[in-house]
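Changelog-linked ticket: pyridoxal-5'-phosphate example.
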Amino acid sequence: MNLFEHLGGQMAELRKAGTFKEELVLQSAQGPRVRVGGREVVMLTSNNYLGFANHPRIREAQKKAVDRWGAGLGSVRFICGTQELHKELEAEIASFFAADDAILYMTCWAANEGLFAAVLDEPDGLYSDELNHASIIDGVRLSKAKRFRAPHGDLPALEKMLADDRTSRYKLYITDGVFSMEGEEANLRECLRICETQGAVLAVDDSHATGILGKTGRGTAEEQGIHGRVPVTTGTLGKAMGSAAGGFITGPKALVETLRQRSRTYLFSNSLPPAVAAGALESFRLLKEDPAPVAKLRHNAAYYRKALTDAGFTIPKGTHPIVPVIVGDTAKALAMGKALFEEGVYVSGFGFPVVPQGHARLRCQVSAAHERADLDRAVDAFRKVGKKFSVI
Ligand SMILES: Cc1ncc(COP(=O)(O)O)c(C=O)c1O
């Protein structure tokens, strides 16, 4: 058997188990409702939290950027790929997080992959929550620092691990601000206290909180009353903030300067296309002018969570617009996703190994662009499909 026959066999196994992920092809722009297979369905599985993915002002900013700055740079930042636009966006992001400076990457994946190896070395200790995003896990693997897996959400254990570590020169603890499979917030306030008392640097990936949590969308730190106090934040521009692409790291000047000199995913990868940078910049400006979409998103999330809970579904406690509906079995979650699609609702099922065995789910993501009628239509569909699959 050659390699490709071997891989084909593995894919056939996934199909047989009902866990092969089919990609549905959109025939429209991203939005609260999309066209797929000639039908309009409610989109409930996008990171388009603020409805900026197809916002007229963001589209206009992107078009103007192409006219003013061209389609692309054909270069990495340090050779000839930095435009005033990139500097403006970095300044905007730094100011949004009340940080000294910010550095752009093509994605948050690249930001997380390029961070740790650039700043920590063999004598250092790198602590990471065990449920952190895959990009953090890969980034941690690339660092030469000693690696410590922190049990998820067990902050006394983290504190003890840090206290017991008397040999590391510098210590850094990284956590997701919001864990994307659960919509669960890290207790950042407590993480900060622990890191400060144990002499560790706190770094937070706020991809699912930037533009989402806090009164003005400044993220998990704002939500928990510690805005401006988290030393290092990584995040994406591909979710709430423009929904196109791009990632960033904010922090002290020395950190950002070091990343510009040493971070491999920054140094050896093309700079962000002007249209993408301009769209993201416009999204920060929109939010600064009027944080109303953040309030609407929160309101929609509360409404949807309550409606599904009242219908009898099991939803982990929380307030985040990620609303996971737990159904248990992976094949069941995927089959329910298909049935919901037939009922006009587009939502993804997630199962093992992305979530623990027996905790498969349909992960709904509410947007500020949803209207009450969209959410009601989704709840009706969930009720019908939930009964059919004996989940309620
Ligand atoms: C917590 C977290 N970090 C990083 C990423 C990667 O972001 P990007 O799409 O910008 O690479 C994601 C995307 O799913 C995420 O959820």
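Closing comment: Example verified and attached. Residues 107-109, 112, 133, 135, 176, 180, 205, 207-208, 236, 238, 247 surround pyridoxal-5'-phosphate (CB under 6 Å). Residues 17-46+291-388 form a domain with the Aspartate Aminotransferase, domain 1 fold (CATH 3.90.1150.10).
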